[in-house]
Design a protein that fits this description.
By secondary structure, the chain is α/β, with parallel strands linked by helices. The chain has 2 domains: 13-120 and 275-355, FAD/NAD(P)-binding domain (3-Layer(bba) Sandwich); 130-273 and 370-424, FAD/NAD(P)-binding domain. 34% of the residues lie in helices and 23% in strands. The protein has an 8-stranded mixed sheet with strand order 7-6-5-2-1-8-21-20. The longest helix has 19 residues, at 337-355. It is globular, with a radius of gyration of 28 Å. It binds flavin-adenine dinucleotide (FAD). Flavin-adenine dinucleotide is lined by residues 17-23, 44-47, 53-54, 56-57, 86-87, 117-119, 137-138, 179-180, 277, 279-280, 316-318, 335-338, 340. Residues 17-23, 44-47, 53-54, 56-57, 86-87, 117-119, 137-138, 179-180, 277, 279-280, 316-318, 335-338, 340 line the site of flavin-adenine dinucleotide.
């Protein structure tokens, strides 16, 4: 028997934290750039798919099938080890991450290079009722639940007489007038307008749509003139935006506004901002800037201009990457998919370069503009001074996102779905009952007969007791 210790593998181990936009693209491109045996790549994400978040408003409106707007990691990452877990701690000083799997006990995983791409979560404020009654729009599950809720509410409302209970079911409140908020607001309005024609008991006037925005304008990504056109277009379709207004309470099915207005509602969608993933940022020892993001250099290594944190990389919404074009907010890239994808592609190249002893390049991307869908056949597009509105912008929105969806397999499913909807109409199936899938089975399931009542032997004992007593007294 040999006494020598097992030889430790010298192949660099790359750990990617989060398989969303930036994480998925980093792994995908690493698979392309790395030579065989040059490094081992592991991606950790509690979800088995990357979510194409720009499609969430259309999923909420039933214009895209939920499964088509996510990309299965295992199907497209063939050389990457995929771990269904959360990273709950990063000890970069020792190059060890704490992995908390979706089943089983947490464990420590050693790495040589870490790529942090854990994205962002909805940022809320301590407003009474929001944490318990509102829903965000960052995940596919939320988009599906929003759609199902609106459709179930139509079903319920159609069985009720006119009155406050029915009004509440037919009222939607969206908080936040950024891109995500306006898109989901407009898409839900569009869905509700289609639903009205299927419910003879519900009229267009019975449905109420309110968006609450704290600032004096919506969609800061487009010009003021374009944003005003969006406001008018929404108002024409019966969807009202409350500017310079804050939501102050959301308790007992009533939304209260800073203007004093009270809106009874059964659906509150919260899209008023995001913050870098707190679990990963706070649970680690990587440097964090004032706004809670991982301090990242323009070459996508963690650190500052003067100090590099060796072996640590970051990209996407979790990171603060300097925007060298001079645009951005506070000198940093804004959190969007445009940046996340491009940063990830460069990150993969830079990481491979560093492994080979070469120099990494700096990230430089000039904003291409913004495009938003505002419900079926309506949209808005802005690039510099060029603004497109209405149908042509909607075509640009679908064209851009149809092409931007990663992988031909996924592009095909999405575009095929749109094609089908064009001829067959929007899919109006509501599967909210999936939340309680056993209800029919349980109602009719045969159960074992209850055990025979234990009362008989007791009776006997009682009748025997006096006899014994008698015997004892003889
Ligand atoms: C409704 C909506 C519409 C949008 N529309 C546009 C648009 O039109 N154009 C545009 O450019 N951008 C758009 N965006 C923004 C864009 O989607 C994000 O900027 C982008 O997804 C950021 O990518 P990311 O990889 O940083 O984060 P994400 O894509 O959010 O990925 C983060 C990943 O990390 C995983 N994760 C979380 N916690 C952990 C953990 N502890 N351990 C391991 N993994 C973890 C998550 O499960 C997720 O898979 C939109 C966003 C939303 C919500």
């Amino acid at each position: 028997m040999s006494n020598t210790a097992p030889v430790k593998s010298t192949t660099p181990r790359i750990l990617i934290v989060g398989g969303g936009y930036a994480g998925f693209y980093t792994a995908w491109k690493l698979e392309k750039h790395l030579r065989k045996g040059e490094a081992e790549v592991t991606i950790v994400d509690p979800l088995p798919y990357m979510t194409y978040q720009p499609f969430l408003p259309e999923v909420a409106a039933g214009s895209i099938e939920a499964r088509h707007s996510v990309v299965a990691l295992r199907r497209h990452l063939k050389k990457t080890t995929i771990v269904a877990a959360k990273v709950t701690g990063i000890n970069h000083a020792d190059k060890v991450a704490t992995i908390t799997p979706i089943a089983g006990e947490p464990y420590e995983l050693e790495y040589d290079q870490i790529v942090v791409t854990a994205g962002a979560v909805s940022r809320t404020f301590p407003i009474p009722g929001i944490a318990d009654n509102a829903i965000g729009l960052k995940t596919i599950e939320e988009a599906v639940a929003i759609r199902d809720r609106l459709m179930s509410n139509f079903d319920k409302a159609s069985t009720l007489p006119p009155g406050p209970a029915r009004d509440r079911l037919l009222t939607v409140v969206v908080v936040g007038g950024g891109f995500a908020g306006i898109e989901v607001f407009a898409e839900l309005r569009s869905l509700a307008s289609s639903l009205v024609s299927k419910y003879p008991q519900v009229t267009f006037e019975d449905t109420h749509f309110h968006l609450v925005e704290a600032m004096s304008r919506i969609m800061p990504e487009v010009s003021l003139k374009t944003s005003e056109w969006v406001l008018k277009s929404l108002a024409k379709r019966g969807a009202f935006v409350h500017l310079d207004t804050q939501l102050t309470s959301a308790v007992d099915g009533n939304v209260e506004l800073s203007t004093g207005e009270v809106i009874p509602t059964d659906l509150i969608v919260w899209t008023a901002g995001v913050m870098a993933n707190p679990t990963v940022v706070r649970g680690g020892d990587l440097p964090v800037e004032e706004r809670g993001r991982i301090r990242t250099r323009a070459d996508l290594r963690v650190g500052t201009e003067d100090e590099i944190v060796e072996g640590a990389w970051a990209a996407g919404d979790v990171s603060a990457v300097p925007d060298l074009t001079g645009g951005g907010v506070g000198g940093y890239c804004v959190p969007n998919a445009q940046h996340a994808v491009r940063q990830a592609k460069l990150l993969a190249k830079n990481l491979v370069a560093v492994l080979r002893g070469e120099l990494p390049r700096e990230y430089f991307h000039k904003n291409l503009g913004a495009v938003a869908g505002l419900g079926l056949y309506n949209g808005v597009f802005q690039s510099g001074n060029l603004a497109l509105k209405g149908f042509i912008a909607w075509v640009a929105h679908r064209g851009y996102h149809g092409l931007a969806m990663p992988s031909w397999e996924r592009k095909f499913r999405v575009v095929w779905g749109w094609w089908n909807n064009l001829w067959l109409g929007r899919d109006l199936v509501n599967l909210e009952a999936v939340q309680n899938p056993r209800y029919v089975f349980e109602e009719f399931a045969a159960r074992p007969r209850p055990a025979a009542p234990a009362a008989e032997p007791e009776k006997k004992a009682v009748t025997e007791a006096p006899a014994q007593k008698v015997a004892a007294s003889r």
